[in-house]
Design a protein that fits this description.
The protein is α+β, with helices and mostly antiparallel strands and about 120 residues long. The chain is about 15% helix and about 25% strand. The protein contains one helix and seven strands; from the N terminus they run αβββββββ.
């Protein structure tokens, strides 16, 4: 009986430790009128944990801020959730000279290859 409980506990532990899930978004940010890429824009998850451990200390947890590269490309990744959360990611985008934008990714198919248009002020 003890060996059965041990084996079941071991298998359960292995399954639970092997479950990893991250929320990943990637795409391009472009100007809404010129369709030119926007570099250096800041993106941040509003409802998903994404911690920048390099900037945190013992008492402060800092949310990760992602930036677009010179071609307007961005890639964002959350903390590991273990099991995948049933959350629609909400992202805030900010760039000087442009109107801030908040958008929601409605389904998993939209999470890669997004094209987001930002409007000038």
């Amino acid at each position: 009986m003890k060996s059965k409980i041990f084996i079941i506990s071991l298998l359960t532990s292995i399954v639970l430790h092997s479950c990893d899930c991250w929320v990943i978004l990637s795409g391009n940010l472009i100007d809404s009128k010129t369709n030119e890429p926007i570099s250096g824009a800041e993106l941040k998850f509003l409802n998903i944990e994404s911690t920048d451990y390099s900037k945190s200390n013992d008492s402060i947890i800092v949310s990760m801020v992602f930036k677009t590269d010179s071609k307007g490309h961005f890639s964002m990744m959350s903390n590991n959730y273990g099991f995948c959360p049933n959350i629609e990611p909400i992202v805030m985008i900010q760039k000087e000279g442009y109107k801030p934008m908040k958008f929601t990714v409605k389904n998993n198919l939209e999470r890669n290859g997004l094209t987001v248009k930002l409007e000038k002020k």
